[in-house]
Amino acid sequence: MLRNSKMEEKNSAEFRMVAKTMQGLEEVLGKELIRIGARDIEVHNRAVSFVGDKGTMYKANFLLRTALRILMPVTEFEANNEQEFYNGIMNIDWSQWIDEKNTIAVDCTLNTELFHHSFFMAQKCKDAVADQFRNKTGERPSVDKDQPDLRINVHITQNKVTVALDSSGSSLHKRGYRHDTGRAPLNEVLAAGMIQLTGWDGRLKLIDPMCGSATIPIEAAMFAANIPAGYFRDYYAFLKWRDFDSDLWEKITEGAINRINNNPVEIYGVEISSNTLKKGRENIRNAKVEDLIKTFCADFNTWDPPAGTGIVIMNPPYGERMDKDDITTFYKAIGDTLKKKYAGYSAWILSSNPEGFKSVGLKPTRRIHLYNGPLECRFMKFEMYGGSKRTKFQNPQQKEPS
Ligand SMILES: C[S@@+](CC[C@H](N)C(=O)[O-])C[C@H]1O[C@@H](n2cnc3c(N)ncnc32)[C@H](O)[C@@H]1O
């Protein structure tokens, strides 16, 4: 009894955390954080900070679709040279989270003239942690760069060192359902963010007519059915921490899994390459959403979409390997097909190719600035009004009223 009440007291202690994300997804992430009960949300560049307790941290890792990592700040100190940095790391009691049998990794970013090599400072941090354990026990934690039990995040601005624990341990875009991909797959976090930016709520038909490895259809299906983002992921660093509360984690994951719904949803994935679609279909099966997504091996320009209204979200090839004439032809065909076959739909296109967008030949009603890895992109919305006779009634499935 005493143990439980003490445990509850510890678990309900609140602290500030930072959810890292991609540029352009900060507002969406802020809204997701509100939905999981986080407080005092502050939006930054590629990050959102928030206040919550240990349960909020578990929820953030398991539920957030647009977060890359959840950092838990530990301390800040000043360091003007390597020795002061080493001492500052040594002053943290690392046995609060792990013991010498666990594995560690260190990420370091620098914004300072005092230190020059982030790799070297990460090494220095790792040495300090290792030395602390070796001095006490004669043994030291080993390094695991991929799935460590404790990932330490060090950020140095001038002489200010901020140390945080990366509770996720590896990027949360690694959902666990995608093993094989086509060329240039979208990051899952970016796909989830794009879907939420469109305002789609699962009720309209959603079509990805160039779906590749099916990232957009899968993220849309998981979003609509309320399948937790981390449902298929079995690794988070905090699971190995000394203060890990398995009862609390079980309660949170079970509660979320019970909220998965069976709402009807219509999602379509179309892909011209049978080889790529094979991989997409396998990912759809891995994510257990095959009942929610219909796939077609077809050319977007000849495939007939279901009649009525809906939303198109697409990530066409950006054309890095095409010459200018090919880009113009390719994107013009996209615009023509949208006009001809998608009256009543709204279409969202992600591309880094400004020439391509020009060739689409439609006026965007929204433009959102996003990054796909290092590539600066626009995510543009085009309304395919059903109003003009030309666009509305070129679709043979729709009859002109008498
Ligand atoms: C940038 S990739 C899409 C990646 C995808 N979002 C993912 O996460 O894997 C573009 C895809 O469009 C497909 N594609 C190109 N032209 C097409 C067309 N006319 N119809 C359908 N798919 C097409 C390519 O084969 C490629 O898989």
Describe the fold and architecture.
- The chain is elongated, with a radius of gyration of 24 Å.
- The strands form 2 sheets. The protein has an 8-stranded mixed β-sheet with strand order 2-3-1-4-8-7-5-6. A 7-stranded mixed β-sheet has the order 11-10-9-12-13-15-14, sandwiched between helices.
- It folds into 2 domains: 2-166, 2-Layer Sandwich (VC0802-like), CATH 3.30.2130; 188-226 and 261-392, Vaccinia Virus protein VP39 (Rossmann fold, 3-Layer(aba) Sandwich), CATH 3.40.50.150.
- Helix content is 34%, strand content 24%.
- It is an alpha/beta fold and 402 residues long.
- The protein contains 12 helices and 15 strands.
- The site of S-adenosylmethionine (SAM) has 23 residues, from helix 7 and strand 10.
Highlighted features:
single chain, 402 residues, alpha/beta, VC0802-like, Rossmann fold, 2 domains, eight-stranded mixed β-sheet, 24% strand, binds S-adenosylmethionine
